[in-house]
UniProtKB/TrEMBL annotation:
Organism: Thermoanaerobaculum aquaticum
Signal peptide (from-to): 1-19
Record's protein name: Uncharacterized protein
Keywords in alphabetical order: Signal
Length: 344
């Protein structure tokens, strides 16, 4: 895999989502790595998984390598995936991922290098199911149960006196239902914005995309960059392969937009414009993330992916959810789960 200059960030917010609500049986960590970075950094990722259900759970983890490659073959090859029980067919096994008791958390340190090798980067798809139930369902996949996921991607340094220190970024696990939905174009929910885009001698900006659609669907994504005064600077399209991860490092001046001038306090709009699929019922679904990184220290700041629509607080908290209001908010038609877990 190519050498990667790594800087990651994500904090995803949607009309249905806010920081306190992250529980799901299918959770995505949109960026994880064991990769070299600028300023002699060596990035690694730890993942923490908490069982917030009422019964013990097992967990499966699928790594999607970066590079905008079609990861369908990788996804379908069960030998590449990590689980807690060899009897379920896993060849990559970590016992921490079986029989996680209610309320208990487990931590997998340096998860990418330990299971998929160094110089690797991509996204993690994490499924939770009732302990021991993986092969008891048809198709295999288990009885879904809820978890919370956090991750930390960080650099580890050793000083001359032997003192070890770390610095890095927390990236939350994103529930599957937070995805940018191409079907919600009439409600304006097929696009998100980021503010605070900066790239100059002091800072760089990295942009990441993860296709979590069904395994046969590609996405046509439009990225539009604006200056601080709202002037459109450039827009371009990216076709994201099925189950692909892609990160554009130094995206403003080098990796993607290739602007000639520095940019401070810019904004970015990301839109799912269309999709291509051979699936009978395609479910186009995108996650995105942005990171603004200090060139001197590699310290990074998260820039939130945000819809421009108001959160339906009156419906969620007060129960005032008329049919017309739900339609206007994009709550109907119902959001569809894009991806089922792989199995042997």
């Amino acid at each position: 895999m190519r050498k990667l200059l790594f800087g990651i960030a994500l904090w995803l917010v949607s009309p249905w989502a806010w920081a306190s609500f992250r529980a799901a049986d299918f959770v995505i960590v949109p960026a994880a790595a064991a990769a070299p970075g600028l300023q002699n950094a060596t990035w690694r990722t730890d993942v923490e998984i908490m069982n917030v259900d009422e019964v013990p759970v097992d967990v499966m983890i699928v790594f999607l390598p970066t590079g905008n490659i079609n990861n369908t073959y990788w996804f379908d090859n069960f030998a590449y995936h990590l689980g807690g029980r060899s009897e379920d067919g896993f060849t990559k096994v970590d016992p921490k991922l079986k029989d996680i008791q209610p309320g208990r958390s487990v931590v997998l340190e340096n998860i990418i290098e330990g299971n998929w090798g160094a110089n690797s980067m991509g996204a993690l798809l994490i499924w939770a199911y009732k302990a021991g139930s993986f092969k008891q369902t048809t198709p295999p996949g288990g009885e879904p149960r809820k978890i919370l996921v956090w991750s930390r991607t960080y650099n580890k340094k050793t000083a001359e006196d032997g003192t070890v220190s770390t610095f890095g970024q927390s990236i939350p696990g994103i529930p599957w239902y937070y995805y940018i939905d191409a079907h919600k174009q009439p409600q304006g929910l097929n696009k998100v914005v980021f503010s605070g885009i900066r790239e100059d001698a002091a800072f760089r900006t990295n942009i990441g995309l993860v296709n979590i659609s069904d395994r046969l669907t590609s996405l046509e994504v439009e990225l539009t960059l604006y200056g601080a005064d709202g002037t459109k600077l450039k827009d371009l399209g990216v076709v994201l392969s099925p189950l692909a991860h892609e990160q554009f490092d130094q995206a403003v001046k080098s990796g993607l937009f290739r602007l000639e001038n520095d940019l401070t306090f810019g904004t970015l709009e990301i839109t799912v414009k269309a999709w291509r699929s051979t699936a009978a019922e395609p479910t186009p679904a995108l996650l995105a993330y942005v990171s603004r990184v200090d060139n001197a220290t590699n310290d990074a700041v998260y820039l939130e992916q945000t819809y421009t629509k108001e959160f339906p607080w009156d419906c969620v908290f007060n129960g005032n959810c008329s049919a017309s209001a739900a339609t206007a908010l994009g709550l109907v038609p119902a959001r569809v789960r894009p991806l089922a877990p792989p199995h042997p």
